[in-house]
Amino acid sequence: MASSSNLNLPFILPAQAQKHVTHNEALRKLDALVHISIVERDSGQPPTTPTQGERYIVGPSPSGLWQDRENQIAAWQDETWVFYPANTGWLAWIEGENILVGWDGNNWSAITSGSAGSGGSQSLNPAPLIGVNATADTTNRLSVTSPSILFNAETDDMRITVNKQALGNTASFLFQSGFNGRAEIGLTGDDQFHFRVTPDGVNWKDAIIIDEVSGEVSMPFTNAAGITDAQIKTAYENNPDTNAFSDVEQIKLTSIASNATIDMSDTQIKTAYENNTNTNVFTDTQQTKLLAIEANATADQTDVEIEAAYNNQVDQINISEIT
């Protein structure tokens, strides 16, 4: 056997002349194929000014010095292009894309969660740290620096779950300014839903608390009890369709019978009135008779008393004198 099985490295044969040539050829191949890092993999044209040691995966429709070398690894070594066909299972890091690809015998494909070359998305499961345009650490194991973040529902719904391990722990969204806390919403230290604010990131105030059992809302720092009657009245009357009445209008309104209507006739009003108790209704004849009775008349006066009362009036005529 003149070469190795996997990398096809040439062996130095017994009594071989110029052994250094064979040895250097093997070292050159190792230098190209160990820890493969590819500049790019999409071009079929060689770069005009390659750097010693740079490696490329020859892209589609190659031409020029790369003619008929599609998918091979092209290494610029000693001022010439050296080509290395890949074996199944070889891995290469694509510098321009920051992904790891593997050769499955037909294509260079991104490493996936399924079988090689299945076309699935690149898998990072599990990954201890993930930084997107940022550096993750053991506390912020997922770190993202971006002007915006999109979470899109795959089918119908989208829910973000924030879970805590125990009642006294916290599950919340924290809003910061200059990496200093200013507001927080969530389950902060219990299972009630809190809306908290702070001027300095240290002294927090619960502006709103929603009880997880009753659903009741409390606002510990809002002095609702301190609002005056006049302020409540003004706040109420400033709304449309409140139809607020003054005290005089209210008295007038309550004095109207509940069954009164604006188009009632005189007869209907009289009947409605007389149907009530203690109205002491009189007919017109009774009213005339009542008005004819003197104000100081009494029902049990005798004839003599009536005559005396009459004779006591000024300009009276004494009946006895006439007779």
Helix content: 10-25%
Largest sheet: 5 strands, antiparallel
Radius of gyration: 53 Å
Count of beta strands: 14
Which strand order does the major sheet show? 10-11-12-13-14
**Number of H/I helices:** 7
Strand content: 15-25%
Arithmetic mean pLDDT: 83
Separation, N- and C-terminal Cα atoms: 181 Å
From the helix content, strand content and strand pairing, which structural class follows? alpha+beta
Shape assignment: rod-shaped
**What order do the SSEs take from the amino end to the carboxyl end, as H and E?**
HEEEEEEEEEEEEEEHHHHHH
Low-confidence stretches: 113-120
Report on the structure:
There is one protein chain. The chain has about 325 residues and is of the alpha+beta class. The chain has seven helices and 14 strands. The model is unreliable at about 115-120 (pLDDT under 50).
Task: Summarize this structure briefly.
By secondary structure, the chain is α+β, with helices and mostly antiparallel strands. It has helices spanning 19-33, 229-237, 247-254, 266-274, 284-292, 303-311, 319-322; strands spanning 37-38, 55-57, 73-77, 80-84, 91-94, 99-103, 108-110, 130-132, 142-144, 170-176, 181-188, 193-197, 205-210, 217-218.
Annotation keywords:
4-stranded mixed beta sheet; alpha+beta; 7 helices; 323 residues; 5-stranded antiparallel beta sheet
List the helices and strands and how they pair.
Elements: H1 19-33, E1 37-38, E2 55-57, E3 73-77, E4 80-84, E5 91-94, E6 99-103, E7 108-110, E8 130-132, E9 142-144, E10 170-176, E11 181-188, E12 193-197, E13 205-210, E14 217-218, H2 229-237, H3 247-254, H4 266-274, H5 284-292, H6 303-311, H7 319-322
Parallel strand pairs: 1-5, 8-9
Antiparallel strand pairs: 2-3, 3-4, 5-6, 6-7, 10-11, 11-12, 12-13, 13-14
